[in-house]
Request: fold
Amino acid sequence: MSYADVICLTFAEIVGDFGYKEFANKGGIERFSVGTLGYIGVVYFLIKSLQGSQIILVNTAWDGMNALVESLAAIIFLGERFDDPKKYIGVVFIVVGLFFLKLPAFNERKFVFPELFTS
Reply:
């Protein structure tokens, strides 16, 4: 697992979340499809991240990166803001926590999708 893997996982989840938010508020098969495709990406990148890694590391990195990137995306693209300025300090702690995980930038291990049916 690497930062690149977790960033792909995070962006797939953002696509899913934003698509489903639009679907929840406006309906439409296109919005539902965008949300669903985003979460199909989540499943793929989660499997890729878990291969040869630990759940505790993948989950911690994903939670932190997702909180950081999705918060920034909500601020930039949706115009959302925290109601209490102290909450931004929490975002700084997330960045510090991700730094201490010491993930490599890229995964040097080749990803092979596991077989679905094994004997």
